[in-house]
Please model this.
Amino acid sequence: MGNLVLWVGNYKTGTSYQQALFHKNRHFLSRNGLLYPDFKVNRGQHLLSGQWTTLKTGGEDAIARSGGAHALFNLHLKKARKFRGTTLWHAESFMKVVTDPVKLQDLKGQLDGFDGIKVLFTVRAADRLRQSLIVQTPGTSSAEDVAIHLNGNNKNGRFHGSLCAFEAISERLAETFGRNAVRILSYEQLRKHPRGFAAATLEAVDVRLLDLLPRMELPAPDESNISASPLAVFLSRQVATDERLARSLAYHLDADPRIFGGKPTSVFTKAQYSKVRDRYLAERDSFLTHVRKYEPGFEYDLPAWSDDTVFLDEIDFDLLRPRAEKIKDDLAQARVEIPPLGRRIANRLTRSMTKTRRFLRR
Model:
């Protein structure tokens, strides 16, 4: 029997980059004792959570071709047990299993028989995690849905809250898999690793993988997965209904120093953020005390944004809306006048100029 490493998330903790890293080097890693399955649909193993979760279109088709979610899981479970080394399953969709005790116990029951199992769970300063989830999670990206989410009246709001219950999740994982099998990681500490985020990722799976890093190909950051300014997203949805145009508009608003002046922004009002911050400050202290009992030196950031953060109630949308409409008109005109190849070149130049402006504002 082989070993299994199950990296369950959390969302918005560098998981896309980590999955790209393992996927890009999967053949090389397989020759060196680490099996990272390729499902073609995406770079992670999200399909393996299919018998407990609802997957996006494409994943369902792949599952159907395999004879169902349970059959697909058993097929890859058999491959993992036969592999002479370690198999890595990396998918934040497992968070929908981890946050449900019944589903988690069912998963554990199906994983019996490995020589060893290690479960990795990454946490991030809860206020930043919450905002990233609001801005990017499907179903909460419209202005109306953001407002509903912030009022705590929808199922996404409840699910996002459960993802931030780090102490409950870590304790549930420890009770299910055993304390020694579970490792809690800090997103901030992973990013501060002296050899970089990729090295920190490999080290978390198996410290011996660090020797392979010089021969591995590192993926480029996924720019499409980087959150735009939260307030730019909120405003863009008020002046555009076209999904692609709304994303472009949010990008341009974020890039224009005349809009927010390069300051960090929040989808929360100041009062809402104070409530969130106070809640997560108390939970952070309790969580740190809990984890340090078996992981001395563990640390992750305080829930706190910089003093110059622009909050939702500090924005005059009536003044900004004309500017947003102008950008919208410019983008629509550019679509007509610039041929496809020219648009791609123009977009690359825009991104390059934006990165330069951001660098100069630091």
Summary: The first strand starts at residue 3 and ends at 7. The two ends are 51 Å apart (CA to CA). The beta strands are 3-7, 34-35, 86-90, 116-123, 182-186. Residues 270-292 form the longest helix (23 residues).
